[in-house]
Amino acid sequence: MSQYFADLQPITFEGRDSTNPLAFRHYDATAMLGDRTMAEHLRFAVCYWHNFVWDGSDPFGGQTFDRPWFPADTMDQARQKADAAFEMFRILGVPYFCFHDHDVRPEGDTLAESHERLNEIADYFEQKMEDGGQKLLWGTANMFSNRRYMSGAATNPDPDVFAYCASTVKACMDVTHRLHGENYVLWGGREGYESLLNTDLDRELEQMGRFLSMVVEYKHKIGFKGAILIEPKPQEPTKHQYDYDVATVYGFLKRFGLEDEVKVNVEQGHAILAGHSFEHELAMARTLGIFGSIDMNRNDYQSGWDTDQFPNSPGEAALAYYEVLRAGGFTTGGTNFDAKLRRQSLDAEDLIAAHVGGMDICARGLISAHAMIEDDALEGPRRVRYAGWEGEAAQAMLAKGATLDGIAADAEARDVNPQPVSGAQEKLENIVNRYL
């Protein structure tokens, strides 16, 4: 039992009128929305890295957080960190967590020692998961922090780095499989380039495609039933990353024949960096059939970089969960808070309060989204707008065998003269606001 959160009690649902900052006002885990509880809809997860690894530093200043397990360079400190993490999961009542290998164990002097340490901490996790009931939403490998990855991981010019990555991912997939993780995520933190002057673009994309293909092959070899997920991001740390956005990832998957094997983990902050809205990226993933999971964290809209803040907009959350519900809801995926405190927020209570607020915003958004779907509030007007395409003549234009010149001849024979019809965007925005 960790003493870091010793003065904090489990968070309970107190309802909308509560003024307690350490209570849920909207998230009632057992409340039913349709045929699922709120907990089953949202499938909340806490990330290991921002909460228990990040020390508060930024590009212009060093450590501000003083955690008892820092500098986390021994296995004893790794276990102390795990104690605090699982205590936090218990207080929040979250069903899932996520981690990188680098988050949970110190790196060894050799690759083999690093793997041994990962398996040792996995043993420790197994007991804690059994005791507390938490599950692993996904595991992943950190292949971007160490200087060996400065020129990429699978896309590195050095084949030994490619081999090192293969060993690292294999070890992480094995542990994820052993802990019954429901997904395995690959984020290409440095899979991109700073300058085309020193980059063989064709070669790097081929390396990345082959590496991902081998990951999928290994998934089937070990019998891992979870989803393989890619997390798109357009830039930062590299100038241009190969997994720019959902559409780019889909094109990459199609090129290597992996579109039925790999899905996406969509992060709100990364969508914003790509110049999109979160709901756009989720809708694109749904439309392309690669929706998997989400990271729920916003950016500061003035700063222009990935600030990883907890969600605080009910409207943004409602539009996001509207697309999640339209996709059929989560299967193996869930809502991971890839979010971190501000570097001035120093206390253990701040970690809890941040997640309480984020979970409440997501719950509020889910409730609004579910109600809009139940009431046909947006789909009804959308059907009316596209109703003309339901007619026999309209469908014939899209059918196999239809030709451009044939359609043109028919339009000229009928002397078509279509008149614009209002898209009524403002009315629809008002409808959404009524549900918030």
Automatic annotation (TrEMBL):
Catalytic activity: alpha-D-xylose = alpha-D-xylulofuranose
Name of the protein in its database record: Xylose isomerase
Binding site for Mg(2+) 1: 231, 267, 295, 338
Entry keyword set: Carbohydrate metabolism, Cytoplasm, Isomerase, Magnesium, Metal-binding, Xylose metabolism
Cofactor annotation comment: Binds 2 magnesium ions per subunit.
The EC number(s) this enzyme carries: 5.3.1.5
Entry superkingdom: Bacteria
Any GO BP: D-xylose metabolic process
Compartments (UniProt record): Cytoplasm
Family label: Belongs to the xylose isomerase family.
SUBUNIT field: Homotetramer.
Active site annotation, chain numbering: 100, 103
Residue sites binding Mg(2+) 2 per the record: 267, 270, 306, 308
GO cellular component entries: cytoplasm
PANTHER family in the record: PTHR48408, XYLOSE ISOMERASE
Keyword Isomerase found: yes
Organism: Jannaschia helgolandensis
Reported cofactor(s): Mg(2+)
A GO molecular-function annotation: magnesium ion binding
The keyword Plastid is annotated on this UniProt entry: no
